[in-house]
UniProtKB/TrEMBL annotation:
InterPro entries: PEP-util_enz_mobile_dom, PEP_Utilizing_Enz, Phosphohistidine_dom_sf. This is Pyruvate, water dikinase. Keywords: Kinase, Pyruvate, Transferase. GO terms for molecular function: kinase activity. Pfam families: PEP-utilizers (PF00391). Residues 528-599 form the PEP-utilising enzyme mobile domain.
Length: 605
């Protein structure tokens, strides 16, 4: 018989060697006796979508950004009727989240405010989204323009002749604070459109469930899909590069060289080869500024971008060249998806009472309109903005290492952002006065101990959730993105008691049997064989090239509007998302049946 609840967060002990892990994170992110009475009665789910791994202290800013932004937009700005924000806690280095429901008595008044406030955005969506792109790109360029090179022995003469009046050290302090505040500001904009976008989709979803009893989740989502969005552009660029290689007659050279650097050197010896290299180099910015995280992009500084790991896009180009030579169609089946979308929409529309057709049409039109942003914002924020932020943070770490303040550039990420500010101050003070600083001596033993704790925490297997299961989940993002519903949570408890099946959200229709390939990082993508079933924490756009090789996807996290579910529908692949523990349960080589119609994965062997 399945347990009726998950472990209490106050009963979970740290793994051996991780004692004192709490010192790595900010106090407000921790469970504490002072709020035990409240926290122990709440349901907390692990946010493996953004943080499938142990979180570095510096990376805590990522979840802090969305903690505030999501809550403010839901609670204070748009007044989403049934839901306030999402609480966060860190336990043994993993992030857990708990939705906050709006008081029942406040919902009618909030609904009136939401209709006015969100309605303004819905009516002016295209113009607002156009402005949104401009202001986000402005901040991306701002962060990329910051300079964290090692402080100079002597300021250039231009500091004097230009009457600048402040030092490179001052600019370090100023620009680090600016980078942090810019990241927070941009994340406010991240949720400016996202929550009300999900709310519009959820409203259409609920209308269909009432109008068409028994309708499947995928049928609703397929009425919205098939739209052109920029998020698929990076993969489309790789396909274009492969086609261009064949047109220029340099495909043989690309296939003959295992790495991009060697191939570029060889290609540069011929005119047609140089043309392809120019195309490749021009494509890198911005289309290779794609974070290669194993889940939701941008949540972890470690993984870098395609541009940091050129083997990822280069291997995809090679694969596309091979497939072109085999006569395969490498483009996404967009026309088929659109045709299926229109067929399904027409059939359901014909079933409606005449009085309901107008509401159906308007809700569907709005859902399709907001869907573009729901996917595209990932490119602007999770990829381009976080790539710029992590890149500049690493530049700062390298500078501190070159100045002998840090033993290793990576040490920066074992400090909280406020501690990095302290280290910068000490470094600048020492540089300014010519006297020794205290930073390395002070922080070195702390960083060394945190490295030990971090390694110990990595060995801990986190439960998918903590506390009592929820009576109801009403926060739109929780339902649509994470796939956290009363049914999915109940499935986690049942799976724990009944091995042999995994239950999740039916993300994309179809039934497939095949061998499993467990993938936890982008550098494993090359191991995936044709026809295998991808099992992963979650997918990101960085993984797009593999969707033409796999037979289905199973993910630990995600809902009906997660990237994994959406992209599988676009590629016509079955998907079960939000299983909670597929990565820890399944192993490469096992055979499973993936039922994307019911959300069940059955282990066959």
């Amino acid at each position: 018989m399945a347990d009726s609840s998950f472990p209490s967060p106050f009963d979970v002990q740290p793994p051996p060697g991780a004692e004192g892990w709490e010192s790595m994170y900010n106090w407000y992110h921790l469970f504490g006796e002072d709020r035990r009475e409240a926290d122990e009665t709440k349901f907390w789910f692990q946010d493996a979508l953004h943080h499938p791994y142990v979180m570095h202290p510096y990376d805590e800013i990522q979840c802090e950004c969305w903690w505030q932004a999501l809550g403010a937009m839901n609670t204070r700005i748009f007044a989403v009727p049934p839901a306030l924000g999402l609480e966060q806690r860190i336990l043994n280095g993993r992030l857990y989240v708990s939705p906050v429901a709006a008081p029942e008595a406040d919902i009618p008044a909030r609904a009136e405010e939401f209709a006015e406030r969100a309605g303004h955005y819905y009516e002016n969506w295209e113009a607002i989204y156009g402005e949104w792109k401009e202001k986000v790109l402005d901040r991306v360029n701002l962060v990329r323009s910051l300079n964290f090179q090692p402080l100079p022995e002597r300021e250039p003469i231009e500091t004097v002749t230009g009457h600048i009046g402040h030092s490179a050290g001052f600019r370090w302090e100023r620009d680090f604070a600016l980078m942090i505040s810019t990241m927070y500001e941009t994340y406010q904009w991240h949720f400016e459109l996202l929550n009300i976008g999900y709310a519009a989709y959820l409203t259409f979803f609920q209308f269909c469930q009432q109008a068409f009893p028994g309708i499947g989740d995928q049928s609703v989502s397929r009425m919205v899909g098939g739209l052109h969005v920029e998020l698929y552009r990076p993969d489309d660029e790789l396909k274009r590069l492969a086609k261009n290689a064949e047109q220029l007659g340099v495909g043989d050279i690309i296939l003959a060289h295992a790495d991009a650097t060697t191939a570029v050197e060889k290609l540069a010896t011929s005119e047609d080869g140089r043309k392809w290299v120019e195309d490749w180099e021009a494509t890198r910015d911005p289309w290779f500024q794609i974070n290669s995280d194993p889940g939701h992009p941008g949540g972890d500084h470690r993984f870098g971008t395609w541009d940091d790991h050129l083997g990822i896009p280069y291997a995809a180009v090679q694969d596309y060249v091979r497939r072109l030579r085999n006569g395969e169609v490498i483009d996404r089946p967009t026309e088929q998806v659109l045709a299926e979308r229109d067929r399904i929409t027409g059939e359901y529309r014909d079933l409606l009472n005449p009085d309901d057709v107008s509401a159906f049409d308007s809700l569907l039109a709005l859902a399709r309109k907001v869907f573009v942003y729901i996917e595209e914002h990932v490119l602007y924020i999770e990829h381009w903005m976080w790539a710029a932020f992590w890149g500049k943070s690493k530049e700062l770490g390298r500078a501190l290492h070159k100045m002998d303040v840090l033993a290793d550039p990576e040490d920066l990420f074992f400090l909280r952002r406020s501690e990095v500010g302290e280290l910068i101050f000490d470094t600048v003070a020492a540089w300014s006065t010519g006297a020794p600083g205290r930073g390395r001596a002070y922080w070195a033993p702390i960083i060394a101990r945190r490295r030990e704790i971090f390694t110990a925490l990595e060995a801990w297997e986190p439960p998918p959730a903590l506390g009592p299961p929820p009576q109801a989940v009403t926060e739109p993002l929780t339902v649509m993105l994470w796939g956290i519903t009363t049914d999915s949570v109940a499935g986690w408890l049942e799976d724990a008691a009944e091995p042999g099946t995994l239950r999740g959200v039916a993300g994309s229709p179809g039934v497939v049997e095949g061998p499993v390939r467990v993938v936890q990082s982008a550098d494993q993508l090359g191991e995936i064989q044709q026809g295998e079933i991808l099992v992963c924490p979650a997918t990101s756009p960085a993984w797009a090239p593999v969707f033409s090789r796999i037979a289905a996807t199973v993910s630990d996290v995600g809902g009906i509007m997660s990237h994994t579910a959406i992209v599988c529908r676009e590629y016509g692949l079955p998907a079960v998302v939000g299983t909670g523990r597929a990565v820890s349960t399944l192993r490469t080589g096992q055979r499973v049946r993936v039922d994307g119609n019911t959300g069940v994965v059955t282990i066959l062997a």
